[in-house]
Amino acid sequence: MPTDFNYLVGGEAGQGVQSVGLLLGKVFARGGYQVFADQDYESRIRGGHNFFRVRVKDSPVAAISEQIHVLVALNQETVELHREELSPDGAGIYDNGKSSGTPTDDWLFGIPMERLAEENAGDKIMTNTVALGAALAMVGYGLDTASAVLTQYFGEGKIAEGNVAAAKAGYDYTRENYRGKFRQLRPISQTKRMFLTGNDALSLGAIAAGCKFMAAYPMTPTTSIMEYLAAKAKEYDLVMVHAEDEIAAVHMAIGASYAGTRAMTATSGGGFCLMVEGIGLAGMTETPLVIIEGQRSGPAIGLPTRTEQGDLQFVLNAHHGDFPRAVLAPATVEDCFWSAVKAFNLADRYQIPVILLTDHHLASSYGTVEGFDLSKVAIDRGLLYSDKDGEPSGYLRHRLTESGISPRAFPGLGKALVVTDSDEHDEAGHLIEDAETRHAQVDKRLRKLSSLKREIGAPPQYGAKKPDCLLMGWGSTYGALREAVDILAPDVPVGLLHLNELWPFPAEVVSKAIQEAKDTYVVENNATGQLARLIRMETGKETKRILKYDGRPFTPAGIVESVKKELG
Amino acid sequence: MVTTADYAGLKSAWCPGCGNFGILRALNKALVELNIEPHQVLLVSGIGQAGKLPHYTKGNVFNSLHGRPVPPAIGAKIANPSLIVIGISGDGDAYGEGGNHFMHAVRRNHDITYLVHNNQVYGLTKGQTSPTSDLGYVTKSTPAGASSPVNPMFLALAAGATFVSRGFAGEVNHLSDLIKKGINHKGFALIDILQPCVSFNHKNTYAWYQQRVYKLEDEKGYDPANKDMALVKSQEWGERIPIGVFYQTTLPTYEDQIPALVKGPLVTQDIDPRRAKNLLAEFM
Q1: ipTM computed for the complex
Q2: pLDDT at residue number A45
């Protein structure tokens, strides 16, 4: 039997739900499993209801599943809110020292979690670690890996020791007192996999790609990127500026990039609204710029801690005027790393803004990755100019070329003067008004598109080739769509065409695939079918739409149900 | 030796008699006297007639958007601190559209020099009120008179500025000295410049300023190291208008406090993806 096991850890904000979820995931990732974990939390610091789902498989996984096998309830509310999601053979653990009355549900196992934490670790703050130990005991996983993970997480010393003791107390209590059936989920190999979020992978990709400057303003769901770069700034010789607002952030990144360093910013749709003028400035001055846009439910403040794919048309069209840009929408945690590397290379080579479009689901969900082969990280700064290339006084920042790309010089590194302007300008970068120069510069910038188009990779395909039923999606829905294809395949000739590089739009391959299918369903986390509209615009093809805009990610089962309903 | 000829730029599109000409002459004079070569300088300007100044001299130029010269100037300075970075704005650019950036650049003490061409009116859009227009000043957008103006000197002092000064476009030598002091100052140096607008401001004219301005350095007992004195002088506006250095002090710059810059400018540091190896291990 293949393993497909789901934990749900729930509680109030401040109870340590996230730590337990993260540590559980790490423990299984170290034991040879593949893990996908998502976070559902409210926009508050304390209280409310938060949960963290940890899905453990012995094969690749990049989607959530709603059926819970072990429910870890740090408060009573978690039991009530999630009892319907429990699988028929599922079980739950809860702190019986804190709940009033005795639940009659026979699937629930009470553990005096807070008391065990106080007695064994000397502090009730480690109650959640008692729960971690108990959760592992329920599946007979053993504590060796957990102890190592706790020590790595908390660092050697008293805090780690306390947590190891707390986990052991929860583990031992459960093994001795639980009367139900223990599951068997032992480590299957010593394979060490990385366990990280989409934001983590983007951060690592940016650092590996040589991003040395970031300016940003905190905004869910991308805040952890600026925090990560800030934390690593000293060790990795980079700078992260917490700017006064998103407008300043994008302009600081543009200034740093103009001066010659790889630079980026990160935000969400609301912050991107403020950054829009920077996109056009980068476009006009031909300054490389990487912007990470982690979407959340909009418009305005929307659902601040929830997911959506509602900004696609926005990022494609943000700013007035015509100029080239690229939009990448990584599909998985692993894809985030390589997309970041590609974004910096595209930005430098084409001297354009590049938008990395993710969403709350991908940004904050954890996945297992085998690793990133750093020897495959190629750095391409594009065409560069140095004083050796000619008489510096003749340097033209916006020289007219066949490709539309003019070699970059960096101010102060040579004698060549680097002049550029947000006004329309001539080859030297000075502002102009005449029609002829205007034409020449617009055309020059747009000429880049013809070679930029060829940079867009073949979209990932999965399932049947030339299927009757074609599913399409973009970005973070990849994992759920793949799994939906697996579920549907025995009954329906179904395949998936998934776009993780959206602009310039890969019109030919999309058009052909839709042409060959009987029905195409575009599955998106938004209310109007923004990809479906883009497909119509770029290919003239109509598609059917499966949409979800409640702030929650798709589940494979949810997609299957929608497709079956459509098929009748 | 650098000469004035090295700073010969394009022909300007300014109105004849514009206060900007004096500012341009003062800037060029300062750069020549400091023996700075054009390629060592980065001029970051905004939008408005002031924003065009970099095209009329020589240097590296980033002519940004309205209100935004300060953030790209900061980004460029951090990327390459060996650049002499000079921001160039008008009053609308600096204190209106870019007001938030101004306040925060001041308090973080980035090592840039900021010239604000302050003509108390919007020129490029042809005669509307500015954040510094005098109270009651009638313009096309304020037919009932302008509201109370912002006080750039007082604002900068309140925000914790380390160099606060005011020049006058009609006093080129004095202004040039201020610019030199600003460039030599380690930290954010504000040089607000009274700039007559001959086309749209018929109140604050050359003659109006000439009757009123006086130099702080000629004022007996004035000490620019004394912030209390500066706070008092910064509120003087009317029959007498002080120019010169209001306040100067020494504090660490933002750039001084960045560990990554100890090894040199970011732009000359190598990129080596393999360095990220240890970071990957932390996620195992």
Answers
A1: 0.98
A2: 82
